[in-house]
Write a structure and sequence with these properties.
Chain A: This is Alpha-D-ribose 1-methylphosphonate 5-phosphate C-P lyase. Chain A: GO terms for molecular function: 4 iron, 4 sulfur cluster binding; alpha-D-ribose 1-methylphosphonate 5-phosphate C-P-lyase activity; metal ion binding. Chain A: It is an enzyme of class 4 (lyase). Chain A: Keywords: 4Fe-4S, Iron, Iron-sulfur, Lyase, Metal-binding, S-adenosyl-L-methionine. The complex is a heterodimer of chains A (294) and B (265). Chain A is α/β, with parallel strands linked by helices and 294 residues long. Chain A folds into 2 domains: 13-140 and 169-223, 3-Layer(aba) Sandwich (Rossmann fold); 235-294, no CATH class. Chain A is built from 7 helices and 12 strands. In chain A, strands 1-9-8-5-4-2-3 form a 7-stranded mixed β-sheet. In chain A, β2 (64-69), α3 and β3 form a beta-alpha-beta unit. Chain A is globular and about 55 Å long. By secondary structure, chain B is of the alpha/beta class. Chain B has a domain at 110-176. Chain B is built from 11 helices and 10 strands. In chain B, the strands form 2 sheets. Chain B has a 6-stranded mixed β-sheet with strand order 6-7-8-3-9-10, with helices on both faces. A 4-stranded antiparallel β-sheet of chain B has the order 2-1-4-5, with helices on one face. The longest helix of chain B is centred in the C-terminal third of the chain and has 18 residues, at 191-208. The radius of gyration of chain B is 19 Å and the shape is globular. Classes of the chains: A alpha/beta (294), B alpha/beta (265). At the A-B interface, α5 of A face α3, α5 and α6 of B.
Chain lengths: 294, 265
Amino acid sequence: MNAPTYNFAYLDEQTKRMIRRAILKAIAIPGYQVPFASREMPMPYGWGTGGVQVTAAILGPDDVLKVIDQGSDDTTNAISIRKFFGKTAGVATTTSTTDATVIQTRHRIPEASLHAGQVLVYQVPIPEPLRFLEPRETETRRMHALAEYGLMHVKLYEDIARFGHIATAYAYPVKVNARYVMDPSPTPKFDNPKMDNCAALQLFGAGREKRIYAIPPYTTVVSLDFEDHPFTRYRFNAPCALCGADDSYLDEIVTDDKGGRMFVCSDTDFCEQRQAAGHHGTESAAPHKEKAHV
Amino acid sequence: MSELSSLDNAQPLLVAEGLAKNYGRLAACRDVSFALYPGEVLAIVGESGSGKSTLLQLLSAQLAPSAGHVAYRMRDGVLRDLAELGEAERRFLFRTDWGFVHQDPAQGLRMGVSAGANVGERLMAVGWNHYGRIRDIASTWLERVEIDVGRIDDAPKTYSGGMRQRLQIARNLVTEPRLVFMDEPTGGLDVSVQARLLDLMRNLVSELGLAAIVVTHDLAVARLLSHRVMVMKGGRVIETGLTDQVLDDPREPYTQLLVSSILPP
């Protein structure tokens, strides 16, 4: 049911216009962080206020919304944001990656490949990839403006010097359209190649930091690396315990206090689809299934 | 090639003309003109507040002058006014063809990242993309400035003052600059460490054929390092000449005072 006291998708129209302008600018300059007047949202910073504002600004009545948190459709954050838009915009929601037109995500890109017409909205905690190397915002902006990105390699150099390989496993810096270096939000670096030449539009919203940036469809996204230490994806060397997939990103789940653990797909939709298609792993999901609340 | 370079050496590397900087009514620096030639080391001496550091900032384009201009001969041989360079060009110059050694190494180093990365940063900034090669160069430079290569992965915050200063020098010289600015490079170090550092700098400067502008209040530094000396007082250059000439036979009363205020060895 639509709550009549809210404007469509919670934000007022002027705010949505302001955010759309920022989004258009972000699309026009791929990877560039556009400042915007981030609003207070009815949720704490760190819960996706940036992503929610971007979603609110682009959502139309015919859209089908999917929300994932670490790949999962059924965590608190994902459910509450999905219900939020169900209530304030009355849009249809789904857990299926292929059926959704707008996917808001925290820390993952779905396993199923995205298609043209879809929009992937990222929740971003810290948009500035250079932040921990150069604390001055005035300086980092200048470095972006002049494309001075030597410092980014200093971070990767430090990784190799300390660990023998590039140990950065998430928020792995990328260069967008051969120009701006961008923080892909804390997605695992496993997902980085999916951003390259992606058919869907990718939007990034950082609420606390008041920044929006974007990767338009079919844009080159290159993960930074060294010639002698090239970028590598990383996943646990195991098949999913539930669906047997050996090519998906896995979560490690501790099952007891005796060192027991299992690896399952982080993308719950992907895992369920595979199980429905008859794939199965060493464990069964069935006995653990709770009864649906009526 | 040698003929060409000798021809190049006949032309000034840096030319300052009528440089002045005012802070309101205070004239920090007045009417400074000189030319610096490739491979030449110029010391700027004077007491605190005499305008040395302001002058150094004007010369290195970190401050805009109130009057006058500075021109620098780029690697392509063209003398260009620094004020006319775009910011990108100026910053590029700053991290390739120039070096700047700060008095406080914490200003010139990244204290939290390893020594190797500190030395390699300039290389990565100009597009070096091979970890092994960057590390080799960094090791070579640490050796050259007499830092134990075993400490390449330690952050400079774990280094002593003298080591930090040497690391800062290595970091600046790795791109083979032609001109290095030094602001009190031996300030805050004890005497034996100062002596080692001066020795090192003198060797590097002559090996690499660097031109350098050294700001110092320590006449011993000027005598050891520089070919020429400029004495400043109240924002003005009051005396200039060959180092030995100025220090052994000072002409101006103030320079005489400065020279005589050193305790005889």
